[in-house]
Design goal:
The complex is a heterodimer of chains A (288) and B (319). Chain A is mainly α and 288 residues long. Chain A has 11 helices and 2 strands; from the N terminus they run H-H-H-H-E-E-H-H-H-H-H-H-H. Chain A has a domain of 197 residues. In chain B, 49% of the residues are buried. Chain B is mostly helical and 319 residues long. The chains are: A mainly alpha (288), B mainly alpha (319).
Chain lengths: 288, 319
């Protein structure tokens, strides 16, 4: 029983990480219908920059901000200078982001080599706590990760549900042409949303680099996990991303614990089941 | 176009007279194999209107089948006469194609990309985990092309002709299939799925059969690939090769089966000779930039560029 709960907590931690990583992806997709295949590359870039900054300043908070800002700027530039021109041509945008992700991954390999990096955590997160009832040790990092996921989710929800920008974004999701007709500069809004999405992604990278580690290949790993999370949860929905992350994180950890060889297959089975029953994802809205 | 294809085939079939073994094996045979693989994607994109990332997976399934049923150094599987192994490989890749189609049948556009990508990655991780059939991370090696009546199919010149024949056959299949009633229904689904349903043709079987057919084509490439590489492993079905095949299709152009082969030869040439121009390590940056340029400047690929050049020349001649 104890084992069961430990696995549960591990699943929760992983879900938190997946959720944080998928947020930027689903936000961008939700408004612009752009499948940002450079998502993983932006995440890894943020993580590398975060690592460098933490190494220099020794301050983790500065690192996460630097990582987030870098990815935000790169993301905004991609949207402003390249993707923006092909708005509505989704397939072309996808191919463009694939090309960008290939180039970025290769340049990052050039700059940082094939080594594995781990971002050092602030002192206060290094210890562990003893969980009540279960009486097992649990590292603070993992608890912090869950808190971060919760905070990210709530902030993002507040942004979308309560702010003016959020209202514009939601209006854009429902009817892009009408929003444009009302005099809102969708081009500018798209760049802003891409910047926010990039920011979230870069920060997720730094968090990933601290909780786990980063190396070439991390980009594709998290692109894939974000894809699956978002497919399962429903594209463009924050709640869906949370639900998807929870399902996938749990499936992966329980799979790893009880059927070590085929943990990854559970993820896949969940995805197929969801696609068969609700092609738009659990909390996604139907396109028609 | 048909005259052009026949001319091309004639040129290709006399090439072994001039070309060295390196060119035959590393450039031409490899290009044709990658071309057939890309063709299976081009078929889906041109006629069904979806982009699938699962084609390398389907080719890999055929490759694994060949490896499992041939002599290999992994010590897994059972040796079968090569004809049976080939037939089984094509059978499995077709069935797998149908399965992918079944899963992805309701998705188009970007959704089909994401779903097929997830399927192919799931297969990739599965091959790494499974040791009883796929031999995990290392996979199979030491597989050689069979000898048919004393003729070693693996010898450079013979293998080149095998590839050329398969490439021509695959192209013929695609051209003939696309003008068959089923092929026309597939194009109908691409253009107006609702109307196809309205005249009483259920769309799901049509979509599934399109994927199954693409599985057959991918399987042909997969068999050649495993004979060419003499091994198959989780890396053969990883993200790298998957994206390569997409790049090849996009570079070549998806409007005509020939595009796949034009893209493949371009890709292989860059892959082989970029080492002379820039550092070998930066190949991905070069190929990424080429892809970016093609997608931005010439969305119909090299085939599209050739076409517009041809039209321009025609205009000049007419004037």
């Amino acid at each position: 029983m104890k084992f069961f709960f430990i696995v549960f907590f591990n699943g929760l931690t992983l879900a938190a990480l997946y959720f944080i990583a998928a947020c930027g992806f689903t936000l961008i997709f939700g408004l612009m219908r752009t499948v940002n295949m450079a998502h993983g590359a932006l995440l890894l870039l943020g993580a590398y920059v975060g690592y460098e900054v933490v190494e220099i300043t020794g301050l983790w908070t500065v690192g996460i901000i630097a990582g987030g800002l870098t990815s935000a700027i790169v993301g905004a530039a991609i949207q402003a200078y390249i993707l923006g021109r092909y708005q509505g041509d989704e397939l072309r945008q996808t191919l463009i982001t694939i090309a960008i992700s290939i180039i970025m991954a290769d340049l990052m390999l050039w700059a940082w080599g094939g080594l594995t990096y781990q971002i050092s955590l602030p002192e206060m997160l290094l210890g562990g706590v003893r969980l009540p009832i279960l009486n097992v040790g649990y590292s603070s990092v993992r608890l912090t990760l869950m808190a971060m996921a919760a905070v990210t989710g709530i902030l993002l929800w507040l942004l979308i549900a309560k702010t003016k920008l959020g209202i514009i974004i939601r209006a854009g999701v429902d009817d892009r042409e009408m929003l444009q007709a009302l005099g809102f500069e969708t081009k500018k809004i798209f760049v802003i949303v891409f910047a926010i999405g990039g920011m979230l992604t870069g920060m997720a990278g730094v968090i990933t680099g601290s909780a786990l580690s980063i190396a070439p290949g991390t980009d594709m790993q998290f692109l894939l996990s974000s894809l699956v999370v978002v497919i399962v949860g429903g594209m463009g929905s924050i709640g869906g991303a949370a639900l998807g992350a929870l399902l996938i994180g749990m499936a992966e950890q329980y799979g790893l614990a009880y059927a070590p060889t085929y943990g990854v297959v559970f993820t896949f089975v969940i995805m197929i089941a969801v696609l068969a029953i609700r092609p738009q994802g659990l909390l996604g809205r139907s396109e028609k | 176009m048909n005259r052009f294809i026949i001319l091309l085939l004639i040129i290709c079939s006399v090439l072994p007279v001039f070309a060295a073994d390196f060119w035959l094996t590393q450039i031409l045979s490899r290009s044709i194999i990658l071309g057939v693989m890309a063709l299976s994607l081009t078929f889906l994109t041109a006629y069904l209107g979806v982009v699938s990332f699962a084609q390398v997976t389907l080719a890999g399934i055929a490759g694994y089948t060949i490896a499992y049923f041939s002599a290999n150094t992994a010590g897994i599987g059972a040796e079968l006469p090569w004809v049976f192994a080939v037939l089984l490989a094509l059978f499995f890749s077709t069935i797998a194609g149908a399965l992918v189609g079944l899963i992805a049948r309701q998705s188009v556009g970007i959704y089909s990309i994401m779903i097929t990508l997830a399927i192919s990655m799931a297969f990739f991780y599965f091959t790494r985990q499974n040791y009883s059939v796929f031999n995990g991370w290392t996979g199979f090696s030491g597989i050689s092309a069979p000898s048919v009546m004393g003729l070693d199919l693996g010898a450079p010149v013979v293998f080149y002709y095998v590839c050329l024949f398969t490439g021509a056959l695959a192209t013929l299949f695609v051209v003939k299939f696309s003008s068959s009633p089923l092929g026309l229904s597939i194009q109908g689904v691409r253009d107006a799925a609702r109307r196809v349903r309205a005249i009483g043709i259920p769309t799901s079987p049509v979509i599934v059969s399109a994927y199954a057919f693409s599985g057959l084509i991918a399987g042909m490439a997969g068999i050649l690939n495993v004979w060419h590489q003499e091994r198959v492993s989780s890396f053969s079905v990883g993200l790298g090769p998957t994206i390569d095949v997409l790049i090849i299709s996009v570079i070549g152009g998806m409007r005509h089966p020939l595009g796949a082969f034009i893209g493949a030869i371009t890709y292989v040439m860059i892959d082989t000779f970029a080492i002379d121009l820039i550092s070998r390590d930066r190949f991905n940056t070069v190929i990424g930039l080429v892809l970016l340029l093609i997608v931005i400047a010439a969305p119909e690929g090299i085939l599209g560029i050739l076409k517009s050049v041809k039209e321009r020349i025609k205009k000049i001649v007419l004037n």
